[in-house]
From TrEMBL:
Single GO BP term: proteolysis
UniProt entry keywords in alphabetical sequence: Aminopeptidase, Cytoplasm, Hydrolase, Manganese, Metal-binding, Protease
Cofactor stoichiometry and binding remark: Binds 2 manganese ions per subunit.
Residues that, per the record, bind Mn(2+) 2: K277, D282, D300, E361
Stored PANTHER family: CYTOSOL AMINOPEPTIDASE, LEUCINE AMINOPEPTIDASE-RELATED
Enzyme class per UniProt: hydrolase
Protein name: Probable cytosol aminopeptidase
Catalytic activity of the protein: Release of an N-terminal amino acid, preferentially leucine, but not glutamic or aspartic acids; Release of an N-terminal amino acid, Xaa-|-Yaa-, in which Xaa is preferably Leu, but may be other amino acids including Pro although not Arg or Lys, and Yaa may be Pro. Amino acid amides and methyl esters are also readily hydrolyzed, but rates on arylamides are exceedingly low
Amino acid sequence: MTALTLSTAAAPGLRADAIVIGVAKGAGGPSVAPGAEAVDKAYDGRLAAVLETLGASGAEGEVTKLPAPSGFKAPVVVAVGLGAEPEKDAGFDPEALRRAAGAAARALAGAKKAAFALPLAEAADAGVVAEGLLLGAYSFDAYKASAKEAKGAKGAKANGNGKAPLAEAALLGGKPRDKAYKAAIERATAVAEELNRARDLVNTPPNDLDPEAFAAVAQAAAKEHGIKVQVLDEKALVKGGYGGILGVGAGSASGPRLVKLSYTSPKAKKSLAFVGKGITYDSGGISLKPAGHNETMKCDMAGAAAVFAAVVAAARLGLEVNVTGWLALAENMPSGSATRPGDVLRMYSGKTVEVLNTDAEGRLVLADALWAASQDEPDAIIDVATLTGAMMLALGSRTYGIMANDDAFRSAVHEAAEESGEPAWPMPLPEHLRKGMDSPTADIANMGERMGGGLVAGLFLREFVGEGITWAHLDIAGPAFNEGGPFGYTPKGGTGTAVRTLVRVAELAAAGELG
């Protein structure tokens, strides 16, 4: 990843490939944001006018490049839009800073070093800028021949345009000796590195990431960061009675796995369980997906990737909370041994499920993992899954839905998501929809009413949460995989959605502030 430093150096004398400054969108045109005073002075106070002449408005994510003033050691100034100018005495929105830093980092692919002179009023600002640029500089080209020819500093992978990601970034206005600033940078680095690891997993082709391979990645990371890990293979799953995970994986030549990652802190007073859907490829099974709906189904393990990354991040940050991650891993394929519509599975909880649609498989693997997580009696469980197309229809491609069995907890998770820069929206669990899953054959069916399908899926999952345990469900089907062009710090492909929310929830629990 991009190397980060805090610097008190003045912009004119800093050796770099570019100086990044912020530009706000004011009522009378663009205005230069705090942090860029030295740059503006070198333009005789006319930098805003120059930028306006070049067509810049200060709109969020807008990037404008211009030659640096005479006397600067950096040859280029990169002006990035921060959006609307804040009211007097109010700082810039953290997410605006995060996105601006990400857009600038993407625009500087191929550069060895850049100095970021964005507004840093306090340590928290340094943290969000650092996070944004580290996420914005991400690229995934492990499978491209051009990557071998365009390696940057320290063997960095090339990005899609053949250039290596930005190698080094200095945050001007930072305080290298200040503990708060140091802590903000360390947190940003740990979270961004693990989030980018989740992106790598989501982007990896399914022929190289089956359940066994995913489990091996988790085992290696656990060993590196002092996390206890347990992997249940097919034999152990059969012995334990994990009918949901086994039923989904029955049609694949690659056997399913259930991975338990346990991070413990000697000072912990609370315990959390994160559960992730890990369908490494989803063909729909016997209920085969139609043509045009299979191409991105490598991303159906994004929930498990997010949970994995969040547990490792919690360990790296040394959070004073116990966090357990459950990765329910299977490949959903059609074959002579695959589960059929009409089959009945006996789940780990003992309940039976009539499978009406084998493409509603995520809720089956999650059901087993949720019940397993419940046996540890954590203070709260959060599951994360690319679960339903219905949630995408409801909330679009950038916002995920939050359901819960406790309104206060749902609100707390929502606030954590928004604070982290991850758009989310609270959704209900209407009791009248539960009747649609009644089965004449089994305890419950895996399908219910078509309308409100995302909520039906949430109601199904609720059936497998232990009694008295607070629980929330994050349906990240929309934002987990970006099929459009990159924006802000979000790349095309895997996004790492929900990692930051889970880390923030863990931080709040450690501080005794989780609702």
